[in-house]
Amino acid sequence: MAIRIITDSASDLAPSPALTVVPLTVTFGETSYLDGVDLSAHRFYELLVEGDLLPSTSQINPGTWDEAFREATAAGDEVVCITLSSKLSGTYQSACIAAEAYPTVHVVDSLNVTVGEGVLVRRALELAQAGLEADELVDALDAEKRSIRVVALLDTLEYLKRGGRVSGGAALVGTMLSIKPVVAVQDGLVEVIGKARGSKNGHNLLVREIQNGGGIDVSRPLATGFTGLDDRILRKYIQDAGWLWEDLVSEVPVYEVGSTIGTHAGPGAIAVAFFSQE
């Protein structure tokens, strides 16, 4: 029995013959879109910077998961479904509810999101290709997800302010001092772990946090991501921090970070996700 890998669009991965991506719903005002289907990441940031209010992202409901599971199992596939962190969305719980009707569907809580979730999905694809059975694959993912490290540098506090995560006064002072927050995914939650004054110091802090993460295991997937309309800031960072992965990987994968995290990070953020050597 073949294994079908299914994930949600918060992973910021594109669907492929080996991967089914189920979209979350993004709502701007009274207009709703299917993430990655009728709303690209590029268009999402155009709408984000044009408006004053934050959009909302709705979890995937059990019925939508059921459709994906029914299609895969009807084709004779066993399913390993990997969702964004259960601490950030009810999407994992919805997938578990839908999976109760399918003995051959297994649901994994990534405890991550965006490029962090994405590297776990890509690891699942590798392990499935290597011939692991579904139960073995799930056990491996549950063990290995604990070694995923995700750190990101935000360019602005504006969108954290809009979302009520920092006060207006703190955002104003931060903007005046050019404060760049550094965030990480810890125990399934997105946490601010440091602040730097200016882009150069921000890049240095990001590099230091990567080093503190135990070193990059290049035998497993690595990813970088960016928010906004272009990847210029990320490309500069990859060049400046090249010694971190120089002679270890032939190419550093770059992904567009979509609405799930982009809503709160705003444009101009960069992120790195990797499996720690620890």
UniProtKB/TrEMBL annotation:
Matching InterPro entries? DegV, DegV_C, DegV_domain_contain
The protein's name in its UniProt record: DegV domain-containing protein
SUPFAM superfamilies referenced in this protein's UniProt entry, alphabetically: DAK1/DegV-like (SSF82549)
Q: Name one GO molecular function term.
A: lipid binding
Q: Any keyword Transport?
A: no
Species of origin reads Leptogranulimonas caecicola
Arranged from A to Z, the UniProt key words for this protein are: Lipid-binding
Source taxon at top rank: Bacteria
Q: Which NCBIfam families match?
A: DegV
- Pfam families referenced in this protein's UniProt entry, alphabetically: DegV (PF02645)
